[in-house]
Amino acid sequence: MAGQTALIIIDMQKGMRSIALPPRNNPSAEDNIARLAAAWREAKQPLVCVRHVSRSATSVFAPGQSGIEFQERFSPLPHEHVVEKNVPDALINTGLERWLHARGIQQVVIVGVSTNNSVEATARTAGNLGFMTTVVADATFAFEKQDYAGNVRSAEDVHLMALANLHGEYAEVRTTDEVLTALSY
After folding, report:
1. What positions does the domain Isochorismatase-like occupy (predicted)?
2. Which of 9, 60, 88, 168 could form a disulfide with 67 if both were Cys (CB 3.0 to 4.6 A apart)?
3. SS3 104
4. Average pLDDT for residues 50-75, to the nearest whole number?
5. Residue 171 maps to which CATH number?
6. Domain tally for the chain?
């Protein structure tokens, strides 16, 4: 990866570990996100931590709820940029696009949760805005979901479909190892 590349970690908050959530896929996603964050910090590349702040008082992501807090291993360092969002897309009404442009950052790598929601929404917008966008398949995860016809789709199916929606159109989909190799060049 040439030049500055921002790692954008989406919604790795305590609320994402709630037992009330549906089954998920990719149990190693958090380990892969942590590997990427450590490599980004070592390479002195920009790291952005995105947090969802719900407008619903009953949400686990509402202000004052413990679920809104970053999971300990994904807490931003003092010099890292924090973005708070109220919708799935981290580039809508947050100032993130301006922050990236002000630093001359043209490449973004997106990880976090959930693949078919905030990750996909952010990657679509990033691609549409002209950023060279990468989504890291094994550093994201999704939850089981009922489709429009009423069929329950496994978390893995939801995850893979979201990645298929993005790959080659809005972003390139890569693995953690592929991204780490590219970072070292």
Report:
1. 5-156
2. 60
3. coil
4. 92
5. 3.40.50.850
6. 1
Q: Which residues in the chain belong to E strands, given as ranges?
A: 5-10, 47-52, 81-85, 107-113, 132-141, 145-146, 152-153, 172-174
Instruction: Please enumerate in sequence order all residues whose Cβ is within 8 A of that of 59, keeping only pairs 6 or more positions apart, or say none.
Output: 15, 65, 67
Measure the N-to-C terminal CA separation of the chain; round to a whole number of Å: 6
Provide the CA 52 distance to its chain's centre, in angstroms: 11
**Percent of the chain scoring above 90 in pLDDT:** 90
> Would you give the DSSP letter of residue 76?
P
Q: 166 in helix, strand or coil?
A: helix
| pTM, to two decimals | 0.97
pLDDT band with cut points at 50, 70 and 90 for residue 1: low
Q: What type of residue is 137?
A: A
For 49, the domain range is 5-183
C-alpha separations of 24 from 28, 31, 37, 128, 144 in Å: 11, 15, 22, 28, 6
